[in-house]
């Protein structure tokens, strides 16, 4: 009976991690953050308007889109296998998301990912000051207050929704090939 409780605890902890940071190594991706983020893309990116009034969750969505776009283009495990149309759709979605948020096209994806991760964590902990500090980087030229306002008013982004479905379907296709 005891091992069963241990398995349940791992499942609960793993599933709890899915909603906090979609790029983390968690059970839904069987330990692979790229796979996990792709599988959760429809939930987190399929209708970004659902995050209006929830800036912490909107920050996670931005982080996830940046992460997927960057990793599927450069990760040696995934880049050679991913359909180029999926990557192109993700790049269009990132352009759409960055356009809405005022993030320059040439911003370093890793800077955006880290800033959004820290801002989202700070907001979940109730620290607006730490969220503003996290967003005080050159990748956000409008400033942290403007970025938080944009995250708080996140609209539905149609290209992002399209990319969310495509990347999840692509991951399913790749899983079936293995």
How would you describe what is shown here?
The protein is an all-alpha fold and 178 residues long. The chain is built from eight helices and no strands. Helix 4 (84-101) runs antiparallel to helix 8 (158-177). The longest helix has 20 residues, at 55-74. It is globular and about 45 Å long. The model is unreliable at 1-20 and 25-29 (pLDDT under 50).
Domain count: 1
**DSSP strand tally:** 0
Largest sheet: none
Helix content: 55-70%
Elements, N to C (H/E): HHHHHHHH
For the CA atoms, what is the radius of gyration?
16 Å
The helix-and-strand class reads mainly alpha
Number of helices: 8
Low-confidence stretches: 1-20, 25-29
* Strand content range: under 5%
End-to-end Cα distance, whole Å, is 34 Å
Overall pLDDT confidence? 87
Shape: globular
Keywords:
8 helices, mainly alpha, 178 residues, disordered N terminus
Please outline what is shown here.
With 178 residues, this protein is mostly helical.
Outline the fold blueprint:
Blueprint: H1 2-20, H2 33-45, H3 55-74, H4 84-101, H5 109-124, H6 128-134, H7 144-152, H8 158-177
Helix pairs in contact: 2-3, 2-8, 3-4, 3-5, 3-7, 4-8, 5-6
């Amino acid at each position: 009976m005891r091992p069963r409780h241990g398995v349940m605890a791992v499942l609960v902890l793993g599933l709890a991690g899915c909603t906090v940071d979609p790029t983390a190594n968690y059970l839904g991706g069987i330990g692979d953050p790229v796979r996990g983020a792709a599988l959760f893309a429809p939930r987190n990116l399929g209708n970004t308007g659902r995050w209006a009034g929830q800036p912490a969750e909107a920050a996670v969505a931005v982080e996830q889109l940046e992460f997927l776009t960057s990793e599927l283009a450069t990760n040696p495990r995934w880049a050679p296998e991913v359909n180029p149309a999926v990557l192109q759709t993700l790049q269009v979605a990132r352009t759409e998301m960055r356009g809405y948020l005022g993030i320059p096209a040439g911003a370093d994806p890793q800077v955006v990912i880290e800033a959004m991760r820290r801002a989202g964590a700070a907001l979940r902990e109730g620290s607006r000051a730490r969220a503003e500090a996290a967003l005080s980087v050159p990748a956000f030229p409008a400033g942290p207050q403007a970025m938080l306002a944009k995250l708080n008013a996140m609209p539905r982004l149609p290209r992002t929704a399209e990319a969310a479905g495509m990347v999840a379907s692509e991951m399913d296709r790749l899983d079936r090939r293995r």
